[in-house]
Amino acid sequence: MLKKPFFGISSSAFLIFFNALFLWIFFSLFRQALDTADMFENYAWGITWTLGNNKHPPLFSWVTAFWFQIFPTKDWAYYLLNEFNLLIALAFIMLSMRKVLDEDKVFIALGLTIVVLPLGIDNGYRYNANLAQLPFLTGYLWALLTAFTEKRISIFCLAGVFAGAAVLSKYSAIVLISAITFATFLYFKPKLTYVLPRLLLTGLIALTVLSPHIYWGVQHGWPSLHYMHQMYRPVEQGEWFSIIVNRLRILFTYVASSLAMLGIALLYPPNFIKTTPLVYRRKIPLGLLIFISSVICIFIASYIEKITPYSGWFIVCSIFFGWALVDMLPDVTNWKMLRPRIKLLIIFYITLVTLVTIYKKLNTENTYVPLAALPEIVSKDVTNLYHNAYNKHIDYVAGSFPLPYAISFYSSDHPYGIYGLDIEQSNWINKSQFKLKSKVIICNKEKHYSPTDPECTQQAIALFGSPDIHKNLKYQVYDPVLKASRYVEVNVLMYP
Questions:
Q1: Most confident range, picked from 92-101, 455-464, 475-484
Q2: Is 156 helix (H, G, I), strand (E, B) or coil?
């Protein structure tokens, strides 16, 4: 029997590539703006190449800065970064599944994974800390499975590199690393005398990868850890049950499309499955074990820290859901019949999403700039104003968050962005240079910015003195909430 080509049109590898290509084209064509502070601040932090910032570990911001050394600072290039990021993560999932599943099951599991909403059309454009850690977490899983099955110390070392990189992207990756390690250990049941020294070596290498950031954190008083604790609401007594139910409901909304796809695929014929899941299993399958362990570990970590579990943490769990679904189906499932059905449903899903999006675009009468696209226009206008006034580049930009970060990204000068007007929290910049170099302060009245005008302009003058030039820019934009056009004003304070 001829073996199917690794990258044939019906292969798992091609499915991963096609999914990345589709999402990149989809977002590039139909999204009107980056529409998120996360992506702007990644770049603003990254171009300083510091070992930390006021919110997160630095690795994903370095990746962003490196990416835009190659590509232009355009929205389409940012979407491409995240699709490349997800492609790597799914490739590691595929390689991991191939160690315990046959090819039909791997393809079906990947098909059920790519329709998970946070990894697809809902959130799949947003390269941030949640999604940036996925290639390293799935790489850690693949390395751990390879190390357990092939018993190679070098692969345990590689697992340590992946683990360190995952935590260097987001601290909460420690929880998922623990879940993956526990599930893998429970599945393979290796001898403790063999595995413990090797896992200690893995941990030591991960710690080595993290050590420069740890040193930076000690030197700066761990601002990112303080932010993490301030970000999440403490849990009151008696709230845990309602919180768990709420978070499981959110997780269900993430994976509902996968469940629906599998349900439709299994509708006909009635005798497609002749037994109930897990009845004759001697142990819980690996994918299901990883998914369950990940969810449980998130709740345990939240309970220990006495904080409300962040919904974004469950986005990371969802990458294992397709594998878990396949594991829940009984062994008598006709996988050969199920695989082409999943393929047809993916094609139908992509077609439906595209047609619905085109229909909405055609039926939206909007002759004005979308509100979400305003930061890019402001960035270009402010840059031109400054060049015309002083004939030199802007070095720093501050003001109503996240406008400074947006200008850092979109402006041809790529100035260093400040966290609002808070120089002390902007620990990635040189404070003495900030006072001496050219700068622009951008202030806005929109309620989702901080600080808003007139407080922003007043604070700026109090901090930096009266500006050399003060401009008021006015834009007519389309507000999707009001479903009407309105004017937005931006105050620009320029210092030579």
A1: 92-101
A2: helix
Rounded (5°) CA angle 78-171-425: 75
Longest dimension (CA), the chain: 79
Residue 178 in contact with residue 141, Cβ under 8 Å? no
Using omega within 30 degrees of 0 as the cis cutoff, is the peptide bond preceding 496 cis? no
Residue among 483, 405, 493, 381 nearest 443 (CA): 493
CB-side neighbour CA atoms (13 Å) of 80: 10
> Among 99, 124, 89, 105, which Cα is nearest to 325's?
105
Selection from 87, 86, 121, 91 nearest residue 106 by Cα: 91
CA pair distance 37, 400, nearest whole angstrom: 12
Plot region of 44 (φ>0 → left; ψ -120 to 50 → alpha; else → beta)? alpha
Task: Tell me the C-alpha distance between 61 and 405, whole Å.
Answer: 13
d(CA 456, CA 461): 9
Using only the alpha carbons of the chain, give its radius of gyration: 25
Exposed/middle/buried for residue 367 (C-beta within 10 Å: 0-12, 13-18, 19+): exposed
Give the single-character DSSP code of 366. Answer: -
pLDDT band, residue 433 (cuts 50/70/90): confident
Whats the size of the chain, residue-wise? Answer: 496
